[in-house]
Amino acid sequence: MKKAFTLAEVLIVLGIVGIIAAMTLPSLITNYKVKVLKARFQKTDAVLQQALLKTANEVGYDSFSDLYTITPNEELERMLPEINNAWEKQFDGATKITNGISYLFGRGVMHHNLFGVNSSGHVSNYFTAYNDDRAIITKDGAMFSYFSVGGGSGWHLLILIFDTNGPFKGPNRVGHDIFTFYSKNLSYNTMCNPTIANSFSTSGCYYWAHRNLNPIDTSKTYWDILYKPLSYWQKK
After folding, report:
1. Which residue in 49, 4, 67 sits closest to 179, CA to CA?
2. Distance (Å, rounded) from C-alpha 112 to C-alpha 179?
3. Which residue in 151, 167, 200, 230 could disulfide with 109, CB within 3.0 to 4.6 Å?
């Protein structure tokens, strides 16, 4: 006599498999997204570091970390055109955009905060200065803004924003694929924690991603923070 599963038994097994898949699939998808963003960041960061070094050398400095001043900021402002001119030379074959805000806005690009919420509803967040919205889009799709001069805590320094996979490919989220580079690390621009009551609370995520350190638990990697809810940050 041959034995076989009954239809009811097969349906029960399929139901269990379906429940397990429904529970694990979102986590698997998220882990895959994180791995893709991590690999993309590492590739773009390597390009960034090389371009920074060459730009600094062209304007007579050993490294970009030397490009900051104590208030006032006349020296950096005077050097800014030369720095940006040297900067754009580092990206041969890249697309150079001179009107970035209208260019991105006209193509429906959105800019989001760490949790994926639309940031002020405007792509101007991709640029460090309203009066200079130039950008460079590399052959592989990464986008770099030009430099502007910013200040804080008595210092003036150089700032740029970059998107590791470009504005036309998501998630377009701060700390995921959008990062801000500062020529000098200070207390206000190395923050990467949305629970901090400060307008710069997540502007320093590049500082942590570059070092691959979790900003709230340095025993873990930076990429552990991606796609986490607010409760992840509040319990720390």
Report:
1. 49
2. 12
3. 167
Q: What does the alpha-carbon distance between residue 97 and residue 8 come to, in Å, rounded to a whole number?
A: 63
Q: Per DSSP, which regions of 125-177 are E strands?
A: 135-137, 143-145, 148-152, 155-163
Helices 74-88 and 7-58: crossing angle in degrees, nearest 10, is 120
Helical residues (DSSP H) of the chain, grouped into ranges:
7-58, 74-88, 100-105, 205-211, 230-234
Dump pLDDT digits (tens) for 84-143. Answer: 999 999 998 999 999 999 999 989 899 999 988 876 657 899 998 878 999 999 999 999
Q: What is the pTM of this model?
A: 0.88
Q: Compute φ and ψ for 169, nearest 5 degrees.
A: -135, 125
Angle at 223 between CA 198 and CA 140, to 5 degrees: 100
Amino acid present at 179: F
Is the distance from CB of 150 to CB of 129 less than 8 angstroms?
no
